[in-house]
Design goal:
22% strand, 7-stranded mixed sheet, alpha+beta, 7 strands
Length: 157
Amino acid sequence: MTDQKGKTCPLLETPENTAPLEWDDFGGPEVTFAPKNLPGVISTRVGYSGGEKKFPTYYSIGDHTEVIQVTFDPKKISYGKLLDIFFDEHSYRSKPYCNQYRSGVWYQNEEQKKAISTKIDNLKKWGATVHTHVAELGEFYYAEEYHQKYYVKQGRA
């Protein structure tokens, strides 16, 4: 599949110590978790995940969600700290209006799954309703190059 510019979105492996998450669109989370803004973050990249469509693109996303992958050094920043920032920065109480822009967090292993469950349980203890999508990370498709570091390219970050 190709987008309107004739580009395909490749399927990529997800490195260890990666936190795949999202709220709204690519831009905000990519700035929040940028290595220059958050010590311990090694890199970010944006793409599509969570759906069944093979090789989605921005113009043909299917049932996928826009996702940012945050690769981090666990000796410098914990997965729990990344979750704290994630839940502080997005509206977990809001129901999604579509899959593409839903808030979500995808786990790579049981340790991450447990950390997410603990965080959500703690929010619920305070009476919060949490609509954040939680699922095991499946395939991750790298988004088109013009989406990578979008706000930086626009001079807004």
